[in-house]
Amino acid sequence: MIQQCGAKNRQGTPCCLSPLKNGRCRFHGGKSTGPRTVEGKKKSSQNAGKHGMYSKKERESNTEVEELCEEVMKILRQFF
Length: 80
Prior knowledge:
80 residues, mainly alpha
């Protein structure tokens, strides 16, 4: 007999899917339990940063640029 998930689906009947190699259903058991080690957690936290637009370094750079733009606008207003 093939082992089945057994979790109840929306109709209220047991799920009939066979489990994956790790013994979990792909819908009701999930494949990952998340990182467990310190190294894995560090790597996982870095996965979210795709472009760095909101990194601390980038935000500081943006404020510097904004301040420079304000100074330039003040100087231009004196002439026009």
